Each structure stands twice: as structure tokens, then as C-alpha cells.
Amino acid sequence: MIRPIMKDVLFLSQSSEEATREDAAVIRDLVDTLNAHRDGCVGMAANMIGVRRRIIAVCLGPMALTMVNPVIVAKRGEYEAEEGCLSLTGVRKCRRFRDIEVSYLDASFLPRRQKYTGWIAQIIQHEIDHCNGVII
Ligand SMILES: [Zn+2]
Q1: Could you tell me which of 102, 98, 101 has the C-alpha nearest to residue 122?
Q2: Using the 8-state DSSP alphabet, how is residue 134 labeled?
Q3: Ligand 1 mean position to 131 CA, how many Å?
Q4: Is the pLDDT at 123 greater than 90, yes or no?
Q5: pLDDT in tens, 70-87
Q6: Are 53 and 17 in contact (CB under 8 A)?
Q7: How many Å apart are CA 5 and CA 20, to the nearest integer?
Q8: Catalytic residues
Q9: Dihedral sign computed on CA atoms, order 22, 29, 73, 134
Q10: In a designed cystine with 43, which of 39, 58, 66, 108 is the match (CB 3.0 to 4.6 A)?
Q11: Helix or strand (DSSP H, E) at 11
Q12: Does residue 136 have a pLDDT over 90?
């Protein structure tokens, strides 16, 4: 189900809680909503659809990579980036890392650990920030 985009900065500034299997429907709604905004959006966190759970979805070609309870366990190569966000207007400068390693649960709640680099790594960092109540 496509959900409306949350733009309330006070809501978005709150840290999200760990997701459980009971949040499986949130994963589907998040992917549906991300797919509906593909023209202007490359990733989304669950609090952007009004659910304070640690779930993110990132565009990976025609697919959506979903991560439940993602944690960055290693990072390397800091740089300055400029990003926009569907929940905000305009772009802002931020610090990102070129290479990251993320530990997370996949959409079937199986544990994964994966390295990402470049653009996809940047999007993942942006969305994990959302889970922590950090908006660029
Ligand atoms: Zn954002």
C-alpha cells in the first residue's frame, strides 16, 4: 500500500525502534511507496511513511533492497556530499563514507552482512540516519 510521505520534522527527529517480524507489512508498504516515488527518490526509511521502525528500502536498479535493523559496522573514506530528501525541500551538505559494511536482517528476517561502496553506500547512510532521527 502506498502511504503518504511524512514531512513533520519533529516526528522525523525521533529515533526509530527495532523492527520485528510483526512489521512485515511495513516492509511491503515501504517498498510500494518507494516505487511510487522513483522519479524523485532513491531510498526511503519507514519513518518517512509514518512508522518509527528501523526499516529502510533503497532502489537497486528495478529492485528495492530492504534492510531491517541495519547497523553500519565498518566505514572508510570520509567525504563531503550534498543531498536532498523527499521529506525536505532543497539540498544540504553532509559527511559520508565511500565504503561501508552493514549488518542487517533481510525481508525474510535472515541475518546478512554486506559491503557497499559509492552511490548505494551513500543512500544507505542517508536512510540509516533517518532511523536515528537524523535528517541531513
Ligand atoms: Zn531522506
Answers
A1: 98
A2: -
A3: 10
A4: yes
A5: 999 999 999 999 999 988
A6: yes
A7: 22
A8: 127
A9: negative
A10: 58
A11: helix 9-12
A12: no
The domains of the chain, with CATH numbers, are: 9-131 (3.90.45.10)
Direct distance between the N- and C-terminal alpha carbons of the chain, in angstroms, rounded to an integer? 27
> Contact 102/92 with Cβ under 8 angstroms?
no
CB 68 within 8 A of CB 54: yes
The reported pTM is 0.95
The three cell numbers locating residue 85: 530528501
Q: Are 55 and 64 in contact (CB under 8 A)?
A: no
For the segment 9-23, what is each residue's pLDDT rounded down to a tens digit?
999 999 999 999 999
Q: In this structure, are residues 73 and 126 in contact, taking their beta carbons and an 8 Å threshold?
A: no
Give the amino acid at 52: R
Model confidence at 40: pLDDT above 90? no
CA 126 to centroid of ligand 1, rounded, Å: 6
Q: How many whole angstroms from 111 Cα to the centroid of ligand 1?
A: 25
